Amino acid sequence: MTVEISIGSLQLLFLCILAAVPANGQLQTGFISIDCGGPVNFKYVDQDTGISYESDGAYTDTGTNRNISSDYAYPNNPNLPQPLSDLRSFPQGNKNCYTLRPAAGNASLYLIRASFFYANYDGLNDLPQFDLYLDAHLWLTVKFSNVSDVVTSETVSFASSEAIYVCLVNIGAGVPFISALELRPLNSSTYDSEYGKSASLLLFQRLNVGSTNGSGRYPDDIYDRIWAPYVSPSWEAINTPLAVNTNENGYKAPPEVIQTAARPRNASEPLELHWTSSNATDQFFVYLYFAEVEQLQRNISRKFNISWNGSPISGPFSSRYLNAATISNSKALVGGEHRIMIYKTADSALPPILNAVEIYKARLLDESLTNSEDVNALLSVKTTYQIKKNWAGDPCGPKKYPWEGLACNYSSLIPPQVIYLNLSSSTLNGAIAAAFAKLLSLESLDLSNNGLTGPVPDFLEELKNLKYLNLRGNNLSGAVPKALLETSNAGLLTLSVDEQNLCGSASCKRKKRIIIPVVSSLLSVMALCIALVVLWQLRRKWKSGTGSPNEGGRYLASEKRHFTYPEVVSMTNNFQTVIGKGGFGDVYLGIMSEGIQVAVKMLSASSSQGLREFRTEAELLMRIHHRNLSSFIG
User: Fold this and answer.
1) Mean pLDDT in runs of 10 for the chain (634 residues)?
2) CB neighbours (10 Å) of residue 279?
3) 2-186, which class in CATH?
4) Alpha-carbon distance 592 to 583, whole Å?
5) CATH code 2.30.36.70 for 372-509
6) Number of H helices and number of E strands within the chain?
7) CA nearest 445: which of 399, 398, 494, 483?
8) CATH of domain 530-623
């Protein structure tokens, strides 16, 4: 006896709900329910569930409110849930996000559900496709089979910070949009897996076995889960009108789910669940719900075992009368074909039963959120200057979609940290915000061509890793802090300021060369001492002493060029790829704007050789040309 489960059956009709209030006026603790694209400050209560819906203006500051086509709206579609009658689309920017701040905060477990109803809202009759992210992790790629298709997806995940980001990413296949978004707090002891907090669970199927009616939702289900009814022709449905005790079970299946069950019509046969996955590496976790709904005579027993693809999962097990229990696999079920079999033991007088089942696919969380101090600093900067850039979601994640004008340092050992921030020509006004000094890993800061006023603050001296600071094109005045000048004159910082505004004091007049033009790679201790040399092996002879051959026969002149630190950051893709190590430090792969591959050599602070030796080597490379030496660029 087999129950066939397909992914297509997952596309149920869900609503997008926010801070919920039942009919009796009691606030549902921790619920966040959002009617995406609803009118500004609009709230209403769903009469069936008592859940309060709210528009999404407090959760995102980008996007456009749209209504679905009248062909798919009420009264042409009288059963359409109200949240699906409108939506928010995001025609601008690659990444647009909702920020949810649940009451329970960090490390708590949540169910998050997103719903999408295209319904030809844009009149193009062209089905879009886009990615949905939870924090920095891909949730799913949203696809539609037809114009009237309602796509929903649920995930169970632990919050890794005080804020949860749900982001829509444009992948070039249509404008992203969303109709509804819900968050429900869960018991943190439930939905356990071998991965703990390092994986989220994507809902594959949730079945109320032995039921023919739609079931679930709040207030019957305190977690507001939606259960699809299932009755198999080869199974016999059974039920009880009596209450089932769920107090000892954190999963707390609603009464109408746990009071129904099924058993095989042929008592000697097992109950079997079967599903397939297109990806043989997919990992599944199954949660089986049991409660004995028949009062058995003293000498009658019902015991059974549970297996997956012939391997035991649990048993022998005997469910207690009118008491709920949940059994799950401790190790992930990996493969394309899956068969869960529930079969009676040799000494059991009765066949097995099953009340409900949930199947989830594990998705490992392979990216970390940005360092929290950096996030707070950037949000403070955004608020202070009312920045209009699309700064949404996690600043550094996912890696492919960091905030505009920002680059990060990624490590497997610590959270990503911001090392490059370009706010040039961003209409910043007022004093330089103290929040910049909280970005302790910052190496490059460009605040040029804005309306900043007041002095250059002393707190910029706290940025010990800073190598590039551009303050030109503002209305700053007064003296440049002494420590910044000393660092600049020592060649450790490229400092660009407007000399006519900032050299009014005696201390400033003694420093005639405050403006250091472009950074020479020979003048940085950490990253500005850079010698660019050709990566590819020399395979041809030098021609006329003009340079060394590069890949494809192109020649790159051996000349002294200067590169700014931001140019080097861009060239090396944020120092992403290490291709070697030497006595002075790491060597990185770089690609110049003309497409030529180069090596970027950086002097490390931990090197036993110092700045003077590094300069000597670079100057020597500038003068010496030989077939066995890579050519020096600058």
Assistant:
1) 42 37 56 95 86 94 96 92 94 95 89 98 97 96 97 96 95 97 96 93 97 85 95 94 95 96 96 95 97 93 97 95 96 96 96 97 92 96 93 93 94 93 96 96 96 95 95 93 91 88 48 37 38 40 42 43 82 82 80 80 68 70 62 77
2) 9
3) mainly beta
4) 25
5) no
6) 7, 41
7) 494
8) 3.30.200.20
